[in-house]
């Protein structure tokens, strides 16, 4: 008798699992249900629809051949029955049934299943404060919410917007509103940095500077305490520090697994509420599979349970589930958590742990910062890219990588190269010797990925003694009270503006002249060596070490990194 598979949820994982299964078992019957009217869409494209870069919302629901993936598409093209505006109310595991309701008619009925797939997704976190039910307050997690926001903006109803949350969606929405529509936009983040948990504090500062120089106001370490309205519509956001006028409030304070249905069915969940699955994506009930934003899978860096609500993850897991529904033996071992976000002038990307996250996990971690051209230095079209490598000191294991660049595709190519290695516990030497495609229009002969590994090796060996950019800026601002000497090792032409501005506080001794002018450097002070990217200052540090002057620090990333975080020097 043909197998009947029921899939609850039809955005990313559900359709992928259903269609993969049908390809492998064409005689089986698949019923896919979703409580929304529109299914199988690219939710990660919502900010670009709101901005107007994606002109038609149906584009997010269409195939590459511009066919909209609606129930008729699934019936004709995939032989999958798709029931929209249909809610699953309860799972009877013993009877292998799901109770469903047609939300248009109120009719309830029971579906019998042989195998069940839970693609329940996630739900937007809603801060427990007064005013969340006011008109003009919304997350942007589905197409209906996206249309509401886009139509309100297009109708001229929004001049001031507040975004609650400084993660991926929050920042992407900030760019959409401010860049494309010219709306006064403010981001309020509870943590002490934007992108908490995903970027180091120094990289987060680069993202913040990109936003702020494009007129997005950012408040970190700030809590929303209530929303106030007029005539039923939001008018103000009250935080613990200020009052912000707002015609629109976007809730982007993260997401949580949408797993009440699984909890009621008695499936095993983790403390976060995510469904626990094995490597074949089976739940604690062997006849029920789950994946996507509603499950926990291993973090392949820490070995601990992880939560990775990403559309790409859901699609890959959907294929694994579809294979196993057809009695295959596909596995999904876990993830390292790769990500990317596009801002105004720059993009950021990363994988694995930040240095702060690594320290919390008990690693003796160091963050290595590199600034280098993304292509051959002699090639006319190039930009200076930021990479940060997180390394465990005693084992030399690489735990994570992050970066920032004006060319996002060049950046993600580097992050991808390392992300695929992280599960194998690569060492610094693996990164130093990683094979990276080389041609002057695409990379340097010693690519920035390899350089990051080399710098990490120098740091661990004590040959390179670094100071971070934020710390350097703080030391410079407090220089009147510090026993520090600042030495610019660049050629004179580069240093002239700062020498003229700061006089004896900013000493210029080019690397080539250090040996001859070493007497100009005080031996009773800590010497901060700075250049454009950190290369000349490191080489200067080696020269001074040979000459017996070892009380030096090289500024990681140099003036390029200082300017990227908005340092006023």
From TrEMBL:
What are the Rhodanese domain coordinates in residue numbering?
480-564
- Which InterPro entries does the record match to this protein? FAD-bd_OxRdtase (IPR050260), FAD/NAD-bd_sf (IPR036188), FAD/NAD-binding_dom (IPR023753), FAD/NAD-linked_Rdtase_dimer_sf (IPR016156), Pyr_nucl-diS_OxRdtase_dimer (IPR004099), Rhodanese-like_dom (IPR001763), Rhodanese-like_dom_sf (IPR036873)
UniProt entry keywords in alphabetical sequence: Calcium, FAD, Flavoprotein, Metal-binding, Oxidoreductase, Redox-active center
What's a Pfam family this protein contains? Answer: Pyr_redox_2
Q: Which GO terms describe its molecular function?
A: metal ion binding; oxidoreductase activity
> What superkingdom heads the lineage?
Bacteria
Detail which positions bind Ca(2+): 230
Which cofactor is essential here?
Answer: FAD
Identify its protein family: Belongs to the class-III pyridine nucleotide-disulfide oxidoreductase family.
Which PANTHER family does the record match to this protein? NAD(P)H SULFUR OXIDOREDUCTASE (COA-DEPENDENT), PYRIDINE NUCLEOTIDE-DISULFIDE OXIDOREDUCTASE DOMAIN-CONTAINING
What is the protein name for this chain? FAD-dependent pyridine nucleotide-disulfide oxidoreductase
- Native source organism of the sequence: Nitratidesulfovibrio vulgaris (strain DP4)
């Amino acid at each position: 008798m043909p197998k009947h598979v029921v899939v609850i949820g039809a955005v990313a994982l559900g359709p992928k699992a259903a269609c993969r299964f049908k390809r492998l078992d064409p005689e089986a019957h698949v019923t896919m249900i979703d409580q929304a009217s529109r299914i199988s869409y690219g939710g990660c494209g919502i900010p670009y629809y709101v901005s107007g870069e994606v002109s038609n919302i149906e584009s997010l629901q269409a195939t590459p051949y511009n066919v909209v993936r609606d129930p008729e598409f699934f019936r004709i093209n995939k032989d999958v029955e798709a029931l929209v505006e249909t809610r699953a109310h309860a799972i009877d595991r013993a009877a292998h049934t799901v109770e469903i309701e047609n939300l248009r008619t109120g009719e309830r009925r029971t579906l019998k299943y042989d195998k069940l797939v839970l693609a329940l997704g996630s739900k937007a976190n809603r801060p427990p404060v007064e005013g969340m039910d006011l008109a003009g307050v919304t997350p942007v997690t589905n197409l209906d919410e996206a249309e509401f926001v886009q139509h309100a903006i297009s109708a001229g109803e929004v001049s001031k917007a507040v975004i609650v949350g400084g993660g991926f969606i929050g920042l992407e929405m900030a760019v959409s509103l401010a860049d494309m529509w010219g709306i006064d936009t403010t981001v309020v983040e509870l943590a002490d940095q934007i992108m908490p948990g995903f970027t180091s504090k120094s990289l987060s500062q680069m993202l913040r500077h990109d936003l702020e120089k494009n007129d997005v106001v950012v408040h970190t370490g700030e809590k929303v305490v209530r929303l106030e309205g007029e005539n039923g519509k939001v008018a103000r956001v009250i935080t613990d520090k200020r009052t912000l006028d707002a015609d629109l409030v976007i809730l982007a304070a993260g997401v949580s697994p949408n797993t009440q249905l699984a909890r009621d069915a008695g499936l095993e969940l983790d403390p976060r509420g995510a469904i626990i699955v094995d490597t074949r994506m089976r739940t604690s009930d062997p006849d029920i599979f789950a994946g996507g934003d509603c499950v926990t899978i291993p973090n392949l860096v820490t070995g601990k349970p992880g939560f990775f609500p990403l559309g790409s993850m859901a699609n890959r897991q959907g294929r694994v589930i579809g294979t196993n529904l057809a009695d295959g033996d596909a596995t999904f071992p876990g993830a390292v958590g790769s990500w990317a976000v596009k801002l105004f002038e720059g993009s950021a990307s990363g994988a694995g742990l930040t240095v702060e996250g690594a320290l919390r996990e008990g690693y003796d971690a160091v963050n290595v910062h590199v600034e280098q051209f993304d292509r051959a230095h002699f090639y006319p079209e190039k930009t200076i890219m930021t990479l940060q490598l997180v390394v465990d000191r005693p084992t030399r294991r690489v735990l994570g990588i992050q970066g920032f660049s004006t060319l996002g595709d060049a950046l993600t190519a580097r992050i991808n190269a390392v992300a695929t290695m992280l599960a194998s516990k690569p060492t610094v030497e693996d990164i130093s010797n990683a094979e990276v495609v080389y041609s002057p229009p695409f990379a340097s002969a010693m690519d920035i990925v390899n350089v990051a590994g080399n710098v990490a090796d120098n740091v661990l060996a004590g040959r390179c003694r670094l100071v971070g950019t934020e710390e350097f800026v703080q030391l410079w601002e407090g220089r009147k009270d510090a026993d520090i000497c600042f030495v610019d090792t660049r050629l004179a032409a580069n240093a002239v503006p700062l020498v003229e501005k700061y006089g004896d506080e900013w000493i210029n001794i080019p690397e080539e002249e250090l040996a001859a002018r070493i007497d100009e450097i005080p031996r009773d002070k800590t010497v901060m060596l700075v250049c454009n990217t950190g290369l000349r200052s490191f080489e200067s540090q080696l020269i001074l070490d040979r000459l017996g002057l070892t009380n030096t620090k090289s500024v990681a990333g140099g003036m390029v990194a200082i300017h990227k975080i908005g340092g006023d020097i």
